[in-house]
Design brief:
Rossmann fold, globular, alpha/beta, 273 residues, seven-stranded parallel β-sheet, binds nicotinamide-adenine-dinucleotide
Length: 273
Amino acid sequence: MSGRLQDKAAIILGAGSSAPGMGIGRTNALRFAQEGARLLLVDRDAKALEETRVLLQSSGAPCATLVADASTLAGHEQIVAACLSAYGRVDIVQNNIGRGGGGGLLDISPEQWHDTISLNLNAAFFACKAALPAMLEQGSGVFVHIGSIAGIRFSGTAALAYQTAKAGLIALSRGVAVEFAARGIRSNCVLPGHVDTPEITHRLAQRYGADRVDELMALRSRASPQGFSASTLDVANAVLFLAGDESRHVNGTELILDGGKSAFCGQPYMPAP
Ligand SMILES: NC(=O)c1ccc[n+]([C@@H]2O[C@H](COP(=O)([O-])OP(=O)(O)OC[C@H]3O[C@@H](n4cnc5c(N)ncnc54)[C@H](O)[C@@H]3O)[C@@H](O)[C@H]2O)c1
């Protein structure tokens, strides 16, 4: 099926990739382009952004780019203005801004706590605040945020500020969804478990050495009852559903994408009594 987002004006926040390859935002951008969206791709990394734009060229989708900082309200006002100038409307804000890690309570400094909350939560608040006026004027608009199951469960790695920020992101999304539902706005989150992304392999290589990456990625895969991690395309397909009209009655909720990991209590399988 194609044309599921035909002519929708979509802002993709974090449309680059922190390491070479297909990050989540980059894959979402490609999937949106395949479905006919008109795109404003945003990233603070000009080179990564340009790589995404080049990748999308063959899709023929209208595609503007903007290098901007998504961690400030001023940045988001600039982003919304650019989308209005390019397409005259803002139908979708698809937010990929975030970064995991950081450690537990005794590991993180107040500065790291602040930075993690700022990136994973405040950026989403600013995105909503900046885009809502245009959406309300149109009488329609959709937010799709990338959260994490870390926002609802301890997901195997201590990352207290990240967990807290992603939990806050769910609350923010639900709050916006309910407050503006009657005025045509929807807001939902996709909550991935482990996703195979270049950013993860890059960080594992830096921390543990390149020779341990395969072993550690396999460990991540085994953490899902399905025995494999999500691909970025798995995430993009979930995002696409929430961004388009097929999900018109889905609002203020989370689509968990973890192969059953968060449904599993963690107890090893035991013989039935
Ligand atoms: N990889 C996983 O296993 C996993 C699991 C659950 C959730 N997530 C979430 O998915 C999202 C994307 O993950 P990814 O692995 O593709 O990350 P990534 O780092 O490759 O991509 C994020 C992009 O956002 C950009 N960015 C970061 N801060 C910015 C800012 N202030 N302004 C503008 N651009 C900025 C980066 O330059 C990068 O291109 C994150 O929110 C992450 O928390 C990832």
